[in-house]
Amino acid sequence: QLQLVESGGGLVQAGGSLRLSCAASGSTLDNYAIGWFRQAPGKKREGVSCISSSGDSKNYKDSVKGRFTLSRDNANNAVYLQMNSLKPEDTGVYYCNALRSTRYWGQGTQVTVSS
Predict the structure, then answer these.
(1) Is 18:48 a contact under the CB 8 Å cutoff?
(2) CB count, 10 Å around CB of 25?
(3) Cys staple from 12: which of 16, 21, 30, 39, with CB 3.0 to 4.6 Å?
(4) What is the bridge-based pairing of β-strands 109-114 and 3-7?
(5) Short-list 85, 53, 55, CA closest to 68
C-alpha cells in the first residue's frame, strides 16, 4: 500500500522560500496523479497544485501561480513543491495526495509564514 511522508515545512518570514517534499513508499508514484493541498486554521482543506500521472499537465491555485512550482521525481519516488515569495496567507498544514483508483494522504507538514 502506498504511503506518503511530507517534510520541509517550517517557520519562514514573508518573502522567504520553502521546499516541501513528499516521499512515497510501498508503491511507485509514476502511475498516480499527485496533488498538494493545504489547510489553514479554521478553514477547509484546499487544493494548491496538482500534476497528472504523466507529468504533462499541471495546475495551480490562482493565488500561488508564479510563486509555487510542483515537480515530480519518479526516479526518487518523490514529489516536491517549491514555494517562493511566501505570504502569511500561505500558512497552513500542507498535505501530499496521490490518486489512482484510491486516494492516499500523507500526515502533513506545517508551514508558518510570519509577517
Answers:
(1) no
(2) 12
(3) 16
(4) unpaired
(5) 85
